[in-house]
Design goal:
heterotrimer; A mainly alpha; B alpha/beta; C mainly alpha; B: alpha/beta; D-Maltodextrin-Binding Protein, domain 2; 2 domains; three-stranded mixed β-sheet; C: mainly alpha; MetI-like fold; transport (chain C); membrane (chain C); MetI-like (chain C); transmembrane helix (chain C)
Chain lengths: 329, 451, 276
């Protein structure tokens, strides 16, 4: 559960579930005996809607939907609390965005981090899951440790690693012991993005491990027995049974990681704050800096709209793409 | 029983929700209201009313002030707490809530607070010009100004938004005496001698110059600020005013050459390589631990240098082409007052007493090496390094310290941050020409918006 | 015999990998108890002179940061989780049991909220909170969390409620129980596993959240633990021992809960996401 993200494939799945649901009668909260009394039913229905849904709906509208609408509106203005008043300026912000090389750079950085984290955390999660999928206290302890970074705040993780990665930090000292010379992990412009990605991989690997373990354990054992009878060796078993049936796990991990890394903020702010210069600035960091430090709220809103569109497109593409691979059994 | 409890729970939720609903619908209708400007117009009447009541009653009106401070290695929590306590002991009716900026860039934090509608009543040492467009700061009343010597010096269009209490030289170049001796180097006066010193230090195996930054972008530009102050401001003391009128540009040769001079030091690898990843505290630590020979920094470093015994620190001014001594000099002070404060009188009183309190001034001289202004008498025994810093001021020509100017001489809003970013980009290898052109474009854009 | 040898090698390899993985956490644990000289000189070694000075100096900060922010975090997390559970379970129950085109649309409308990152809505949320005078209050932050995490709660609960037979509701209704009573007395107790998933997920997110408390609660009325350590960390950048002590203390409650309820954590998280 890479921090703060939510399973976005939810939308898709529940849609599908909704379709399979048998058609119920209109007001299932009422016993059928009461249904004939039309007036009462209507009253009850509105009361029930009010009792059950209104609070959630209201607060959701206030703090999610209305802000999205406002954000889109702001993106067409030059709103800046450091100046008096503001006006609608049409697509000016978006036109500026197209010319803003720093924003383009932020998109590239975000994509690199997202890609590395998704692939590396998945791969390492799978390997570690295969490694510890046995019963013994050793493997239990390993599992516990692999998962621990997951429950820590990204702020804490970021600070711990920032000490590891400074020039005379622990990592360089360790490399020194074995005769290698390190580098400025957080100041070298050609490395810093990978350092950040590595820290996020360290933190999110445990999540992948746990998900893969659950998927591995859900694979029916008779499949392996059948394979044994057919004379398959270990590698064949993995290739033809385990790997295809891991697909749901891969889908979950990929979607969770992609979405969480696309809005990555906490790690970056603590590790480098976008530096050196703007080398490691991600989209989220750029939005928050532009909005709350440079106070260009209108311009930042247009970036937010772009990020939102990006996340929407990516989650749809990834979910549909990965779903196709999954095998039913 | 349970049913009634549940019902009452639901009822309370609904009441709360309904209450919120009313408010949020009004907010919905006017999302365009900028939060910060509302109280500016209402100011004069309430301030005059408050001053009347203040003059008629000797007792202070009860008030609660939030005060934005920043903690540095020099100005610790104890300094601020002590100063605040002295004030509240004198004025028991006024309650002070201290807000500490998460890093030394308190202007950035003040902007964040302004953006989120939490602008404090009193703000310490912020860049005033960034807040003039939104009229977020209150011009200090004459009756308070008269109590502060030299207050008018930092006026913007005749109005004082920040009360000064001392001067700083930004930067001087501090150096490790032992490293200089080992390398056979002496204090340089001209730029050529400076390059020679760098070469000698390199030969002796030392890192000649230290710079930092990382999360503290403002810590990157000290030497650049010095070079621009000495090279540009001696030629053209009114450069910033001319830039405001569009008569000069960042991309003009005068300014560009100063930047290129600075850039050449990076090209010749005269700085530490991890400059952009270490923050201000680590940077200072690096110099005090002997990781580099020269350290361009503001005069407040004197306090930290005197507080340690690891290295012997000397100082010289930023070398110039002809060897003349130029002093980048900045008169500044801590206290500004928010225009939207509920207690303008109490806030201005706090600001005034803060900068005039004798013990505060002694402590700031002691702990932050603030240089007292003419007319201020401070009972303090200066250390040899501190005395040297003050003596140098008398030997050279004073100019404004670039990007640390105050009052009418300061650049327009936001340019200081832009300058810091530009500097980091240039260190990372972007071209000086395009970066300075971008800086000009940014200036035009901001100034067009401010009219 | 060969098999036993290979399983031993496998175990050894696992231990090695785990040790490397654990290194950063080991550093934190070990350096808390060293004085700053040894932290810098020998970060990996065991403490030569065991000291509690780092922890003591963090705990005795004059601003009582650890105590106040820990209390704030606990309060905010507990209340946010409660309101999200109450609200989202009721919404999910209604929407699942009243299956119609409208309620399915409403469900999708709610689940759309799962896709929205906070960075996108934070600017307008600040405006909304200023307008309702909840800016820089804990109530404001909790209200925001409720709105932001209700979709997740609905997503979890709606999947789970589908597995509960309708006959239960109908039997209760025939007995004359009101829908509200039916839900809280009969259905909600059956949602236990789902509720614990929701508690773990949202509890972790809220406890570890950083940006929202940093901006929304602001500096005046206290802070949460994550935003709190971010605010003061500048003072520790040259004192690793105290910095690690700060990190350790800030994470202690969550680590403790995790180790105590490890199975529940892992189950909650996997069942929550696998169901998706």
């Amino acid at each position: 559960m890479p921090n703060g993200n939510k399973p976005a494939l939810a939308v898709n799945k529940s849609l599908i579930k909704g379709k399979h649901e048998e058609k119920g009668s209109d007001s299932l909260l009422l016993p059928s005996s009461l249904k004939s009394r039309g007036v009462k039913k209507l009253n009850n229905k509105t009361t029930n809607f009010f009792l059950f849904v209104s609070h959630g709906l209201f607060i959701y509208l206030t703090f999610v939907i209305m802000p999205i609408v406002l954000c889109i509106y702001y993106s067409f203005t030059n709103f800046n609390p450091l100046f008096k008043g503001f006006k609608v300026i049409g697509f000016q912000n978006y036109a500026d965005l197209l010319k803003d090389s720093a924003f383009g750079h932020a998109i590239v950085v975000t994509c690199i981090i997202a890609l590395i984290v998704t692939i590396a955390a998945n791969a390492m999660g799978l390997l570690s899951a295969l490694l510890v999928n046995y019963k013994s206290w050793v493997y239990n302890a390993s599992r516990t440790i692999f998962f621990t970074p997951q429950v820590l705040s990204p702020v804490v993780v970021g600070f711990i690693w920032s000490i590891m990665l400074t020039d005379d930090g622990v990592l360089n000292k360790l490399l020194g012991y074995i005769g290698l010379s390190g580098t400025s992990w957080l100041a070298n412009p050609s490395i810093v993005v990978y350092s950040i990605a590595a820290v996020i991989v360290w933190q999110s690997m445990g999540f992948c491990t746990v998900v893969f373990l659950a998927t591995l354990q859900s694979i029916p054992s008779d499949l392996y027995e059948a394979a044994k009878i057919d004379g398959c060796n270990r590698r064949q078993k993995f290739r033809h049974i385990t790997y295809p049936l891991l697909a749901p796990g891969i889908t979950i991990n990929t979607v969770m990681l992609l979405i969480s890394t696309f809005k990555v903020f906490d790690h970056v702010v603590v590790l480098t704050n976008g530096g050196p210069g703007t080398t490691s600035e991600t989209i989220s960091l750029k939005i928050i800096n532009t909005a709350f430090n440079e106070n260009q709220m209108g311009y930042a809103s247009s970036m937010a709209v772009v990020l939102f569109a990006l996340i929407g497109v990516i989650s749809i593409v990834v979910v549909t793409g990965l779903k196709r691979r999954e095998v039913e059994y | 029983m349970k049913k009634t409890m549940l019902l009452s729970l639901v009822l309370t939720v609904m009441i709360v929700v309904a209450g919120c609903g009313k408010n949020s619908s009004t907010s919905n209708n006017s999302p365009s209201e900028p939060a910060a400007t509302t109280s500016a117009e209402a100011q004069p009447s309430s301030s005059s009313a408050a001053s009347e009541s203040a003059s008629s009653a000797p007792e202070d009106q009860p008030a609660e002030l939030s005060v934005l401070v920043f903690e540095s290695p020099n100005l610790t929590a104890q300094f601020w707490d002590g100063a605040i306590k002295r004030f509240t002991d004198k004025h028991p009716n006024i309650k002070i809530n201290k807000i500490v900026s998460p890093d030394l860039d308190r202007t950035k934090y003040a902007k964040q607070l302004l953006a989120s509608g939490q602008f404090p009543d009193v703000l310490m040492s912020i860049d005033v010009q960034d807040f003039t467009n939104s009229k977020s700061l209150l011009p200090i009343d004459d009756k308070y100004l008269s109590k502060v010597p030299g207050a008018e010096g930092n006026a913007i269009n005749g109005k004082v938004y920040q009360l000064p209490w001392g001067a700083q030289t930004i930067p001087y170049i501090y150096y490790n005496k032992k490293m200089f001796a080992d390398a056979g180097a002496t204090e340089p006066k001209t730029w050529a001698e400076f390059l020679d010193v760098i070469a000698k230090l390199k030969k002796a195996g030392f890192t000649p110059l230290l710079n930092g930054g990382g999360k503290d972008t403002w810590a990157t530009t000290f030497l650049l600020d010095g070079i621009i102050s000495t090279d540009v401001f001696t030629q053209d003391p009114d450069w910033v005013t001319k830039r405001k009128n569009g008569e000069v540009k960042f991309s003009d040769p005068l300014f560009k050459n100063a930047v290129k001079k600075w850039k050449s030091l990076y090209d010749s690898k005269s700085f530490n390589s991890d400059g952009l990843s270490i923050d201000y505290s680590l940077l200072q630590d690096a110099f005090l631990k002997g990781k580099g020979a020269m350290y361009p920094m503001g005069s407040w470093f004197v306090a930290a240098a005197d507080a340690q015994k690891d290295i012997d620190v000397g100082v010289f001014t930023v070398p110039t082409d002809d060897g003349s001594i130029v002093i980048p000099y900045s008169v500044g002070g801590p206290a500004s007052v928010s225009a939207s404060t509920k207690y303008p009188e109490a806030a201005q009183m706090f600001a005034t007493e803060f900068v005039t309190d004798a013990q505060n001034v002694v402590e700031i001289v002691k702990s932050d090496a603030l240089i007292p202004l003419d007319g201020q008498t401070v009972d303090y025994q200066y250390s040899p390094l501190f005395q040297r810093v003050i003596d140098l001021i008398g030997q050279g020509k004073k100019v404004n310290a670039f990007s640390w100017e105050n009052g009418d001489a300061s650049m327009i809003a936001g340019m200081k941050d832009e300058m810091n970013k530009t500097a980091q980009n240039i260190i990372l290898g972007k071209s000086v020409d395009s970066e300075l052109a971008a800086l000009d474009a940014k200036w035009e854009q901001t100034s067009a918006r401010s009219k | 015999m060969l098999l036993k040898w290979s399983s031993k090698a496998h175990a050894l390899f696992t231990v090695c990998v785990t040790v490397v993985f654990f290194l950063p956490l080991y550093l934190v644990l070990i350096n808390i108890f060293k004085d700053s000289k040894q932290v810098m000189g020998d970060p990996l070694g065991f403490p030569t002179s065991f000291t509690l000075a780092n922890i003591r100096s963090v705990l005795t900060r004059p601003d009582h940061l650890i105590y106040t922010s820990m209390w704030n975090s606990t309060l905010i997390t507990a209340l946010s989780v409660c309101v999200v559970i109450v609200s989202s379970s009721m919404v999910a129950y209604y929407l699942v049991r009243n299956d119609s085109k409208k309620s399915r649309l409403l469900l999708v409308f709610f689940l759309f909220g799962l896709m929205v990152p906070t960075t996108i809505i934070l600017i307008p949320v600040v405006k909304v909170l200023i307008a309702v005078h909840l800016m820089s209050t804990k109530t404001g932050l909790i209200a925001f969390y409720m709105g932001y995490y209700v979709p997740f709660g609905i997503f979890m609960y709606s999947g789970f409620i589908r597995t509960i037979p309708r006959e239960l509701d109908e039997a209760a209704a025939i007995d004359g129980s009101s829908p509200l009573r039916t839900f809280w007395r009969i259905i909600f107790p059956l949602l236990g596993p789902c509720t614990s998933s929701v508690i773990i997920f949202i509890g972790l997110w809220v406890w570890n959240d950083f940006l929202n408390p940093l901006i929304i609660i602001g500096p005046i009325k206290g802070t949460t633990i994550t935003a709190g350590i971010y605010r003061v960390i500048g003072q520790y950048s040259v004192n690793w021992g105290e910095m690690f002590a700060m990190m350790f203390l800030a994470s202690l409650p969550i680590i403790f809960l995790y180790l105590a309820l490890q199975r529940k954590f892992v189950e909650g998280i996997t069942s929550g996401s696998l169901k998706g």
